[in-house]
Amino acid sequence: MSSERANSYDYDGLMACARGELFGPGNAQLPAPPMLMISRITSITEDGGEHGKGQVVAEFDVNPDLWFFQCHFLGDPVMPGCLGLDALWQLTGFWLGWKGMLGRGRALGVGEVKLTAMVTPQTKLLRFEVNMKRVIDRRLKMGIADGVVTADGEPTYAVSDMRVGLFQDS
C-alpha cells in the first residue's frame, strides 16, 4: 500500500482497488462492475463525519441502461434496495483499507435500514455518506458506521450500525 492516502478517488482509483492494487494483495477490495455501485469517492477523512471518527462521501452516476433496471421490475423499473445498502458496505470496507487495516472486507450485518424513496431510471445521481461510529483494530478488525443515501438530493436510505469486518487468509 502506498504511504500516501488520497482524500478522493476517481473511477480509475476505484478500479485499482477492485483489482487489489490499492491496498495490496489480500486486503480490502471493491467489487468490479456491475456490482461496483460507486462512480467516485469525493471525500474520505480519518476524523470527519457525524461522530468524528471518519467519513466517506461518494457518488454513483445513474443511467437508465443499468442492468438492474432491465429486470427489477418489468414495466416498473427500480434499483433494488439491497444495492444501495451494498454500496454503503463497500464504502465502509474501503475506509477500513484506506485507514491501513489489513484483511479482506466482508459485510457482517446492519442494525436498521429505512428506505424512504425509490431510485428509478429518471434518477441522475446517488450520493452516499458513511459516518464511522466505532473502529476496532485488534485481532478483530471491524468498522461500525451509519450511512445515508440521497437520490438527486432527496433522502432515499438511512442505515444505522452497519458492520464490516476484515479477515486475513489463514
UniProtKB/TrEMBL annotation:
EC number(s) per entry: 4.2.1.59
Broad class of where this protein is predominantly found: cytoplasm
The keyword Transport is assigned to this record: no
Localization of this protein: Cytoplasm
Reaction(s) catalysed (UniProt annotation): a (3R)-hydroxyacyl-[ACP] = a (2E)-enoyl-[ACP] + H2O
Family indicated by similarity: Belongs to the thioester dehydratase family. FabA subfamily.
The name this protein goes by in its record: 3-hydroxyacyl-[acyl-carrier-protein] dehydratase FabA
